[in-house]
Amino acid sequence: MKFSKRHAAKTLTWRLVGTLDTMLLSWLLSGDLWIGLQIGGFELATKSFLYYMHERFWYRTKIKSANKRHIFKTFSWRCIGTLDTILLGWLVTGSPLTGLKIGTAEVFTKMLLYFVHEKLWYRINFGLDKRIKERRLQS
C-alpha cells in the first residue's frame, strides 16, 4: 500500500480534534480527569491507525457525489470510532456502562465534527497532485 501525505495529514488533524473531544467527554462522564487523559492517550494510537486505513479504503471508492461520499464516510467512520471508544472506555474504567456512555455521547459530537472536517478537507488540494493537474487540463 502506497503512503499518502494527504491521508496522513487528515489523520493528524482529525486525531487532534477527535482526541480533544474524547478527553473532554470522558472526563465529564467519568468525573475523573485522569480517566479522560488515559482514554484520549490510548485513542491516539488506536484511532490513528484505524482512521488512516479508513481513508485508504474511501480513496478507492467510486462515489462521485461529494455530499453522499461525506455522509457515507461520516457514518462508517463513526461506527468504527464509537466501537473503539466504547472498548477503550470499558478497559480503562473497568465499567462497560461508562464505556457505553462515553461512546454514545461521542456519536453526536463526533458526527458533527467529522462532517465539518470532511467538508474542509474537500476544499484543500494538499496531496492531490493528480486532481490539480486534471483541473488545469480541463480549464
UniProtKB/TrEMBL annotation:
Pfam families: DUF2061. Residues 9-58, 71-121 form the DUF2061 domain. InterPro entries: DUF2061_membrane. It comes from the Bacteria. This is Putative membrane protein.
